[in-house]
TrEMBL record:
Claim: Flavoprotein is one of the keywords in the record: no
Region described as Disordered: 280-496, 1186-1205
Protein name: CNH domain-containing protein
Stretches with biased composition (Polar residues): 377-398
Length: 1325
């Protein structure tokens, strides 16, 4: 079925604003939409060819149509002939459609007429259906009420029951109707005055219904039953033509006034007139003439029709008769006789300025005078203040209507009869003085307020219907000559009564058909309950549907409105969960410019499938990729055919809409259905932006901002809504998804240079809409240029709402037509996101939120793998792009800025953290993020790939990447220690040893290593693959692990390292020789040669190439002179043989070897003559040439005291004296006289205590002055005297000690006394 959209109105009222909604331009849909129901009904008769519908009633499969030919046509709904869902045969989705209901004419009857009625062109005025007693009450325009059986439409009660002089029938108790509806929804149905039980089959007790039958003189309360109807009460209230009832209280109307009627006691409360004022002549004859002409035009509109059913005799003063209402339901009466304008060519958008100013568009004239315009206060506010001159309770008009006094009430009680009576406009006679209806007074007539009065719909004037004129009364009339004053013309308006709540009625009043109508809410006491309700024009018909008032406005003769009728919809209660379901206007194109029209609320119709809902909410397969394969096949697989059929059926199920309001005109019937939320909101959304806006003019920016504001407004309407039905769930999801997609396309289309940081709120709203809408993340990723390779559709493909699929297809097709083919990972694609960090941040947050849903049941298991593959791949690229475009100066302005690097680490650092492992590897390789790639490999326990990546990282030389790796070599060593793969540890341990000897040795020698290595095997590996680490490893064995078996090998390695550079002249040799010369040139006192090297030579060569050689030489010296087992473990003779060729260069090494070999003469010769190392010579004498050079310290002694310097040395005093004697002999052999004299003097002065004076005197040349050895001689003599005295004292002390011990022995013997031993006692030895 095709849906007729609502007409022109502002967006706030859900009217017809052209916005380009959906994919193409469309009209904003209001709260209701018109659906074709039945076309071209066979209404013609042999006597009459121009026959129109006058009333309609329907229930279940039965449709009853009353005509202007005084006939009732009974139609029966035919069941569907077969499946309506076409089976798809190709990728193109089938069009969503539903079959129109098909009715067959079952019977055609002509109700009985009164005598002489044929000359009056009778017509069917009202069809009133009572499903309980299964009866249909048919009211003819002649006033004859007949009874028929439901559903076959045969005469009831043998056709013997008829009621003449009837003006209206109906007014069931609305309270019972509401309770029955609630009971039926819970499987319990309790009718009025009885119960038919549950649907389980309990027998009915009473199916009767109590209806009001209004006649010329009285109101009859008739109980209609399966048997003959019974008159319950007859209340004398003449001239009533319409009413509505709740319990015992009925609101009734004559042709002029409204009143409240108590059906039990017959009391009445007059309210106010239907016409609040009449046209009055003005002192200005021009004005009078103009007003008279307008009244004449209005009269012509009301008197002409094609065809025109005549009025009933008893209601000849009422132009339209009466209507039936159940909860606001009213059958249409004759509304013919009004000219209808031609159909407008299109639904034009009305400018907002016109709406705010109260103007009405052309096409439907609404002449509104500011002095007579009515306004509506807020539905929850107080009653409007009445201006001066308005009609109130104490006005003359109110007093002229009369008041019930206590005397009248008493009289009414005394004269009570079975048939109560009342009078309209006079003093009523009450049945009981205690009822609240004794408080009778008239409500004020609708106030005559200026246009600026408060309106319930908004603070601005109400909008005018589509096609209405923006001007007030025509000004062209004012140019006519003034005539005489015209007498007042009485205006007759049809009464309208509905009951929106259980304790109030809504009554419509007005001044003329062309002026606005005003709704007054009154309670059962006749008091106003809320503010007034304003209608654009006084309506011809009005019904209550749910919480909305639907009014049929009069036809307009203006050119733009010919052939179009307008329905005004006003929501009177704000409890609808959908905030977008506001009031508005609905246009119904009739086709015929002069056709009559009417609306009615029927008993019940079947649900229909709304095409515009299903075409949006059906799931279709969207093609995101254009590669060869699944997306290029022309035929569908079996599962795809089945899936499409299932989606069509599901879409039809959730697209069913119910509604009991019909609109009829001529021979056609429409259904008025509540507009689904998805249709209303989607029609307000703009089309997607396919290309960046041209230029940056203020107008272009303003248009862009307006589009975004519209989308955000729609998104706000669904924010916080909780779905209560399946369709509402899909509607909310659809709107959120589409708003998110449209907002995203808006931002993606902005020029790169435009600062999108101005829209943090909009960006967050976009993100929230995409997340809350649960849109497939593959669709969102497809909108980002350069992310095509991160998409995986899978076998099942991507399914999305059809309405969103159209948007996606448009965007993707346009982008593909604009893009140039580029290689994946090309710089062009990566540079495209420079300056668009905010969009990448939005994508990151969106994908991260979706990533947290992994494993949730809300994600389809059929697509879970492809969905999270796409999420991980796109998130990886997004994070890499974010880090590549990182701008520290702009970070503080970005919404949702995070530490991207840490998020990258976190994403890769967990087992099974990514679904698209290969794709992530490719991206990290492409972006040269080797360290992050190694983390990803680690999460998968791919040890070889991890080590290979680290190796590439070091070999790349990228300082930035190495800084990110931190202490990379240490981490590699620790990683290898934890591995069990022997070959892996060997390969990368040797590589590490070549880079860092210490860490490489650690891999093979650390006790924590999980792979244990044999020492000899490691030595062979180092010799072959890492010779630079061989020395360090052997040194580790000897020094750290105390494995002295490898001392010779260690010293041999050092010796080879030291002697190799000395084989030929080179800077190292020159440096060595110069160090000797520099040391010998120093004057005494000076440090040892070893210390001289540490303090002078080594620092001077740090910056040069020889620093390592000098360091190794010092280490070699320490190893050679070591007093530990290292020194005793190596072969001294072998080592001396290797050093012999270099003994003139490696003097210090030879001294150590000579000393360890006991060749003290040679060692001291090198110390004294080659090095001239005085302190070194002294140390040699003290420790016998076996101590570490680095541990020796020179010092002075007086009298030969050395303290702790020699107490730990394993050498005797005698040996030390011999060595000092050798030093003295070598010193006396020095060729430099000055040096020889300094050496001899210092030796004798400082170390004379270790020398024999006789030997000294024997070797000192006779040429030496006595003064040179005077200190030595004095010291020697003193030592001799001291030694003599010490020996004397020592002997004396020993004698004293002997005497003390002897005395103690004698004392002990005396103490013990003698002992006697017998022969038997053993002798103790």
């Amino acid at each position: 079925m095709e849906l007729a959209h609502s007409g022109d109105s502002e967006v706030g009222y859900g009217g017809g604003v052209k916005t380009g909604g959906g994919v193409g331009d469309s009209t904003v849909v209001g709260p209701y939409m018109v659906v074709d129901f039945i076309d071209d009904l066979p209404l013609e008769t042999p006597e009459r060819t121009e026959v129109a519908i006058t009333c309609v009633e329907a229930r279940e499969e039965n449709l009853y149509v009353g005509t202007s030919a005084h006939e009732i046509l009974h139609f029966v709904l035919l069941p569907p002939s077969g499946p309506t869902t076409p089976m798809p045969v190709s990728l193109d989705p089938p069009s969503f459609h539903s079959e129109k209901p098909s009715y067959i004419l079952a019977s055609r009857i002509q109700p009985p007429l009164t005598s002489g009625a044929l000359s009056q062109n009778p017509y069917i005025k009202q069809i009133f259906l009572l499903p309980g007693p299964s009866k249909i009450l048919v009211l003819s325009s002649t006033g004859l009420l007949s009874f028929w059986s439901y559903p076959e439409l045969s005469p009831a009660y043998d056709g013997s029951v008829k009621v003449g002089g009837t003006s209206f029938v109906g007014a069931l108790d609305l309270n019972n109707i509401n309770r029955e509806a609630e009971a039926m929804s819970t499987n319990e149905y309790t009718p009025e005055a009885g119960s038919i039980g549950r649907r389980s089959g309990r027998a009915a007790v009473d199916n009767s219904k109590l209806v009001m039958v209004m006649g010329k003189k009285a109101v009859k309360m008739v109980k209609v039953k399966d048997e003959e109807p019974r008159l319950v009460k007859n209340i004398e209230c003449p001239s009533l033509i319409y009413g509505a009832r709740r319990g015992p209280i009925a609101c009734v109307a004559t042709t002029t006034d409204y009143s409240l009627l108590h059906l039990e006691i017959g009391g009445i409360i007059p309210l106010f007139p239907i016409v609040s004022s009449n046209f009055s002549p003005s002192a200005d004859s021009t004005t009078s003439t103009s007003a008279q002409e307008e009244i004449e035009e209005a009269s012509q509109m009301r008197s002409s029709s094609s065809p025109q059913p005549p009025s009933a005799p008893e209601a000849s003063d009422n132009d339209s008769g009466s209507r039936e209402t159940v909860s606001g339901r009213r059958a249409s009466s004759s509304a013919a006789g009004r000219p209808y304008p031609t159909r407008n060519s299109s639904l034009q958008q009305r400018p907002r300025s016109e709406v705010l100013s109260g103007g009405a568009p052309s096409g439907l004239s609404v002449p509104i005078d500011p002095a007579t315009k009515h306004t509506r206060a807020s539905s929850t506010g107080s009653i409007q203040r009445r201006p001066s001159g308005s009609i109130g309770r104490n006005s003359p008009l109110s007093r002229s209507m009369g008041r019930v006094t206590g005397k009248d009430a008493a009289e009414a009680a005394r004269t009570e009869t079975p048939s109560s009576s009342c009078s309209i406009g006079g003093t009523p006679r009450l049945k009981s003085p205690n009822t609240t209806l004794s408080k009778v007074s008239k409500l004020p007539a609708p106030p005559v307020a200026p246009r600026s009065a408060v309106s319930s719909r908004s603070n601005t004037p109400n909008p005018t219907p589509p096609g209405s004129s923006t001007s007030s009364h025509p000004t062209k009339k004012a140019t006519k000559p003034r005539g005489k004053v015209t007498p007042p013309i009485q205006v007759s308006l049809r009464p309208h009564i509905v009951s929106p709540t259980p304790n109030e009625f809504l009554l419509i009043t007005g001044t003329s058909p062309a002026d606005p109508g005003v709704g007054m809410f009154v309670n059962f006491d006749g008091d106003p309950t809320r503010g007034t309700l304003q209608l654009t024009k006084y309506p011809e018909e009005i019904i209550l549907e749910e919480s909305c008032i639907i009014a049929l406005l009069p036809a307009s003769d203006e050119a733009g409105s010919m052939g179009v009728r307008v329905l005004e919809v006003i929501r009177i209660q704000g409890d609808d969960p959908d905030p977008s379901a506001n009031g508005g206007f609905v246009q119904v194109p009739l086709g015929s410019t002069r056709a009559n029209a009417g609306i009615a609320r029927v008993m019940g119709l079947n649900e229909v499938v709304a095409t515009e809902v299903g075409s949006r909410l059906r799931f279709d397969k969207v093609r995101l990729l254009t590669s060869e394969g699944d997306n290029t096949r022309g035929e569908l697989e079996e599962w795809e055919v089945k899936r499409i059929a299932e989606e069509l059926e599901a879409a039809k199920r959730i697209s069913k809409i119910g509604g009991n309001v019909v609109f009829f005109s001529g021979t056609k019937v429409w259904r008025l259905l509540s507009s689904p939320m998805v249709v209303r909101l989607d029609s307000r959304l703009p089309s997607p932006v396919l290309s960046p806006p041209q230029g940056t003019t203020p107008e272009a920016k303003k248009e862009t901002d307006k589009r975004r504001a519209t989308i955000l407004s729609v998104l706000k309407d669904v924010h916080g809504l909780e779905p209560t039905t399946e369709r509402m769930f899909h509607e909310i999801a659809y709107i959120k998804q589409k708003c998110g997609v449209l907002l995203l396309t808006e931002f993606l289309s902005l020029p790169r240079e435009e600062d999108k940081r101005q829209f943090p709120t909009e960006l967050l709203a976009t993100e929230r809409a995409l997340i809350d809408g649960s849109l497939d993340p593959r669709i969102v990723v497809s909108l980002f240029s350069g992310f095509e390779e991160e998409l995986r559709e899978g076998k099942n493909g991507v399914w999305v709402y059809s309405g969103i699929k159209k948007v996606i297809d448009m965007v993707l097709i346009h982008r593909r037509s604009q893009e140039q083919p580029t290689r994946d990972g090309d710089d062009k694609k990566e540079s495209e996101w420079n300056g668009r960090r905010d969009l990448l941040l939005l994508l990151r947050r969106y994908l991260s939120a979706w990533r947290q849903k992994k494993g949730f049941g809300s994600v389809s298991q059929a697509n879970e793998k492809e969905v999270f593959w796409t999420i991980d791949a796109a998130l990886m690229r997004c994070l890499l792009l974010l880090e590549a475009t990182r701008s520290p100066s702009a970070l503080q302005h970005m919404a949702g800025e995070v530490d991207v690097r840490q998020e990258l680490y976190k994403m890769c650092d967990y087992p099974s953290s990514v679904e698209c492992f290969d794709r992530c590897v490719y991206l990290l390789e492409n972006f040269k993020r080797l360290y992050v790639l190694s983390i990803l490999y680690q999460s998968k326990k791919m040890s070889r790939e991890v080590l290979e990546t680290w190796k590439r990282l070091f070999e790349s030389g990228d300082e930035k990447a190495l800084a990110e790796f931190g202490e990379g070599e240490d981490r590699i060593a620790d990683y290898l220690l934890a591995k069990k793969d022997r070959e892996l540890v060997k390969e990368y341990g040797l590589w590490l040893a070549n880079r860092n000897q210490r860490l490489g040795i650690k891999v093979f020698a650390d006790e924590r290593a999980r792979v244990k290595w044999d020492v000899q095997e490691v030595l062979e590996m180092f010799k072959q693959y890492a010779p630079v680490a061989l020395r360090g490893y052997v040194e580790h064995l000897v020094v750290e692990q105390k494995n002295y078996a490898y001392s010779n090998e260690l010293l041999s390695i050092y010796l080879s390292t030291i002697t190799n550079p000395l084989s030929s002249p080179n800077p190292t040799t020159a440096s060595l020789i110069s160090s000797y010369e520099a040391y010998r040139a120093l004057d005494l006192p000076k440090p040892t040669y070893r210390k001289f090297l540490e303090e002078n030579v080594l620092p001077a060569t740090v910056a040069g190439d020889g620093a390592d050689w000098w360091t190794q030489r010092l280490t070699f010296l320490d190893l050679l002179a070591s007093a530990t087992q290292i020194g005793s473990a190596y072969d001294n003779s072998t080592m001396m043989g290797k050093l012999e060729p270099f003994k003139e260069l490696l003097v210090a090494e030879m001294i150590v070897l000579y000393g360890r070999a006991g060749n003290h003469d040679a060692a001291l010769h090198f110390l004294v003559h080659e090095l001239r190392d005085f302190d070194g010579s002294i140390e040699y004498c003290l420790d016998g040439g076996k101590s570490r050079p680095s541990s020796r310290k020179s010092g002075k002694s007086s009298g030969g005291k050395t303290g702790a310097q020699v107490e730990n040395v394993n050498i005797t005093r005698e040996d030390q004296e011999k060595l000092f004697a050798l030093v003295l002999v070598e010193a006396l052999k020095m060729g430099d006289w000055m040096a020889r004299q300094q050496w001899v003097e210092m030796l004798l002065d400082q170390w004379g205590g270790w020398m024999d004076p006789v030997h000294v005197l024997s070797v000192i040349p006779d040429t030496y002055s006595i003064a040179l050895i005077s200190k030595f001689l004095i010291s020697a003599l003193r030592n001799l005297v001291r030694e003599k005295n010490e020996s004397v004292v020592g002997r004396a002390l020993c004698r004293g000690e002997n005497l003390r011990v002897s005395a103690e022995f004698v004392d002990k013997c005396d103490e013990l006394g003698p002992t006697v031993q017998t022969v038997e006692d053993p002798i103790s030895l």
